[in-house]
Amino acid sequence: MESFTVLTDSAERTRALGERIGSRLSGGETILLFGPLGAGKTILSQGIGAGLGVRGLIQSPSFVLERVHAGRLTLRHLDFYRLTAADVEEAGFFAEPDDSAVAVVEWGENAGEIPEAVLRFRVLFVPGMPDRRRIMIEAASPLWGDRIRDAIREAGLRA
Predict the structure, then answer these.
(1) pLDDT, tens only, 3-12
(2) CATH second-level architecture of 2-154?
(3) Domain coordinates of the chain in residue numbers?
(4) pTM, whole model, 2 decimals?
(5) Which of 54, 68, 91, 125 has its CA 20 to 30 A from that of 42?
(6) CA atoms lying within 13 Å on the CB side of residue 111
(7) Do residues 78 and 65 touch, judged by C-beta distance below 8 A?
């Protein structure tokens, strides 16, 4: 697994990073997002959706568990804040792989073991800097490491 850490200085920069990553997705990927409440997981999800060609509002699916958005690929935006790993397994969210969709999971720490996850993002506040976020990215393969490196560069960020 390859790891990267980037700093963003605004929601727009976080969204731009997500968009560059979303543009590189080809379908069938699962992306797990970790971080405290309000850190920017939904902002990152919005960017990924934009990169997938989703038009319209992408909001947190906290109370409905999943929102599905049409784009170049289908975005399955999931929120596991109120779930346990046992709940996720029992509900079968990942039982049937779909190569025409991308699953983005907020509160990935509650998902349990998702071995097919290609990317893991940890979004954290930077103490004393309210607009800054530290985003740690783990890529499951060298191919994804190269894609993340390119996305970071295109978003105007540095690892």
Answers:
(1) 999 999 999 9
(2) 3-Layer(aba) Sandwich (3.40)
(3) 2-154
(4) 0.95
(5) 91
(6) 23
(7) yes
